[in-house]
Amino acid sequence: MKRRSWSIAAVVALLAVSACTSSGGGTSSGPKPSDPPAATARPGVLRVLAGSELQDLAPILEEARKATGVTVQFSWTGSLDGADAVSSGRADGKYDAVWFPSNQYLRLDDTGKSKVLSETPVMVSPVAVGVRSSVLNDLGWGDGSKVSWAQIGDAAAAGKLSYGMADPSRSNSGFSTLVAVASAFSGAGSALSEADVQKATPSLKRFFTGQKLTSGSSGWLAQAYTRAEPGVVGALVNYESVLLSMNKSLPPEQQLTVIRPLDGVVSADYPLSLLSSSAQRERDSFQRLTAYLLKEDVQKRISEVTLRRPVAPGVPPAAGLPSDRRRELPFPGSRAVADGLLASYQNDLRRPSRTVYVLDTSGSMEGSRISALKSALGRLTGTDDTRGVRRFRNREEVTLISFASNVKWTKTHAVPASGSQPGPEAELASINADVQSLSASGGTAVYDSLEEAYRVIGRQQSAAGDDRFTSIVLMTDGESNVGATDGDFKRFHDGLAAWQKSIPVFPIKFGEAAVSQLQGIADVSGGKLFDGSGSLDGVFEEIRGYQ
Question: Which candidate in 45, 72, 176, 547 could, as Cys together with 127 as Cys, close a disulfide (CB 3.0–4.6 Å)?
Answer without folding.
Answer: 176
